[in-house]
């Protein structure tokens, strides 16, 4: 069987189309989670942290007299009484309370001023970003297959079009720009 340019382009189109559909979900997951990870300084991809300040409407016992029951009563106001882990006093007049899941409370005993940090897992985005850290052997196998698939999709895409829209025309210029930009960042930034 003789392979001419039209047959090669037809094969490239078929392979490009089929692999693109097969890996479309992965491309979207990596793209969305990659965007979030690029902005980790403004958004925590794994946890949502909400900080709330309020004042206790009653007087707490003296530091040496505070019991677990006192702390549990304090946690009832924010519906966290069942998540108590432990508490301690980092400085005189201050109490820190740790809760299950990473949330915490800081209390100024004299004034009743409370700072509550609620920490909640981000279920979807957190799971998606976890894939960037290679969570297991089977994932390694699939992600290697994905990487090879992306190379094949890229190469078949390069040879799908002919003429001025293909590699010898506008496509070649776009390919050159797409390779040059990451190289400039790698070499100079």
Describe this structure in words.
The protein has 189 residues and is α+β, with helices and mostly antiparallel strands. The protein has two domains: 5-44 and 124-188, no CATH class; 47-121, no CATH class. Helix content is 50%, strand content 18%. The chain is built from five helices and five strands; from the N terminus they run H-E-H-E-E-E-E-H-H-H. It has helices spanning 5-38, 68-76, 123-130, 137-160, 170-188; strands at residues 47-55, 84-88, 94-99, 104-108, 113-121. Strands 1-5-4-3-2 form a five-stranded antiparallel β-sheet, with helices on one face. Strand 4 (104-108) and strand 5 form a beta hairpin. The protein is elongated and about 90 Å long. The two termini are 49 Å apart.
Q: Helices and strands: which structural class?
A: alpha+beta
> So what's the overall shape?
elongated
* Largest sheet: number of strands, sense, barrel closure: 5 strands, antiparallel
Low-confidence stretches: none
Report the C-alpha radius of gyration, rounded. 28 Å
Q: What amount of the residues lies in strands?
A: 15-25%
Contiguous helical run count: 5
Overall strand count:
5
The percentage helix is 40-55%
Counted up, domains total 2
End-to-end gap = 49 Å
- What is the H/E order? HEHEEEEHHH
Query: What is the overall pLDDT average?
Result: 92
Strand order of the largest sheet: 1-5-4-3-2
């Amino acid at each position: 069987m003789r392979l001419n340019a039209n047959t090669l382009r037809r094969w490239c189109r078929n392979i490009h189309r089929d692999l693109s559909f097969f890996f479309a979900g992965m491309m979207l997951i990596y793209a969305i989670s990659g965007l979030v990870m690029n902005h980790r300084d403004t958004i925590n991809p794994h946890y949502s942290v909400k900080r709330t300040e309020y004042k206790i409407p009653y007087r707490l016992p003296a530091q040496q007299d505070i019991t677990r029951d006192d702390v549990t009563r304090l946690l009832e106001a924010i519906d966290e009484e069942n998540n108590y882990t432990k508490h301690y006093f980092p400085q005189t007049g201050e109490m820190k309370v740790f809760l299950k899941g990473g949330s915490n409370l800081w209390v100024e005993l004299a004034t009743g001023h409370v700072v509550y940090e609620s920490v909640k897992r981000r279920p979807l985005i957190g799971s998606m970003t976890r894939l960037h850290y290679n969570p297991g052997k089977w994932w390694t196998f699939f992600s290697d297959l994905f990487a090879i698939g992306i190379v094949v999709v890229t190469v078949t895409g390069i040879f799908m079009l002919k003429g001025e829209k293909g590699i010898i025309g506008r496509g070649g210029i776009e390919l050159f720009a797409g390779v040059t930009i990451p190289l400039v960042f790698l070499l100079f930034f």
